[in-house]
Design goal:
It is a single chain. With 279 residues, the chain is mainly β. The chain is 4% helix and 46% strand. The N and C termini lie far apart (109 Å).
Amino acid sequence: MGDSRCVIPQTTPRLLAASIICGLVACNGSSSPPPPGATPPPPVPSLVSITVRVEDSLPRPVADARVEITSGDDAGKFAMTPANGRITIEGRTIDAALSLRISKPGLSSADLRLPSSDSIHLVGLIPDVLLDLAGEHQLTVEADTLCELPEIARARTYQATFTPGTNTPWYFNIQLSGASFFSNLDHFATFVNSDALRYEIYLPGFLEEDPMIEQLSPTEYFAFMGEAIAEANQSDTVITARFLGSISYCEATPTTTYDECGPITACFSESHKLILTRQ
C-alpha cells in the first residue's frame, strides 16, 4: 500500500496505451514541472544558403568582389566572386537569415539581409568615379561596310544631348535632334561606369523593341536599333562603339507610314559603329 509507483496490471487489455501515459504523466495525472532555476536549451542554428550575382552599372559581372557574412555564427566568413560575378555562400544562423556585405575597392558597397533561397539575388555596385558625358555632342551611326544599303543610309550624323538621371548619375538619356524623327522614336538610354559605356538603342517597356526612325524624305525612312559597348576615358574626344544590331532603309509613298513601307533593305551585323564626338 505504501508503494506510490504507477503499476499497470499485466492483464490490462490497454497495456500499451497505459504504459505510454504512465511514462509521460505522474500517477495523479499532472505533468512533472521543470526543476527550479533550470535554463532552457539554446536555439539550434540552421544553415542558410544565399546566392548573389554582383554587377556594375553597365551592367556587367563583377569579379573579385568580397561577399562577407556579418551576422550569425559564421560572421567574418567570406568568399570572392569569380569572373561571372555569381557565388553561393552558406552560414549558420538562428533566425533563417544572413546579413551580408558586398564590396570591392573602387566600387560602392552593399549591405543586405537575406533569407535562405534558391533564387539569385542581383547586387549592383556603382563605381566611385563615373564617366561624365553630360552635354551636347555628335553621334554618327555607321553601317558595316559589307551591308548592301543605299549611300544615304550608310552613315547618319545627329546632334545628341546627354542628360544624366536625377538620382542615377550612371544613366544618361540621349535625345537625338537635327533630323526629322518619328514622335517618341528619337531617344534611348546609355549606361556608364568608370571606363566604359553601353548604349541601349530601343525603347524598353513596349510590346516590341522600337527602333530610332528618321524620315529622310517624304518617301524614304532610315531606322536603327540594337546595343553597343565601348571602352572610354574621360579625356577621350571621340568614342567609337561596336554596334550589334540592325540598320534599315525603305521607300514609301508620301501617305505610307514606316510600318507599311517596303520592301525594306535591312542589315543585321556585329560590326556597325556608333561614333560619339564630344563637344
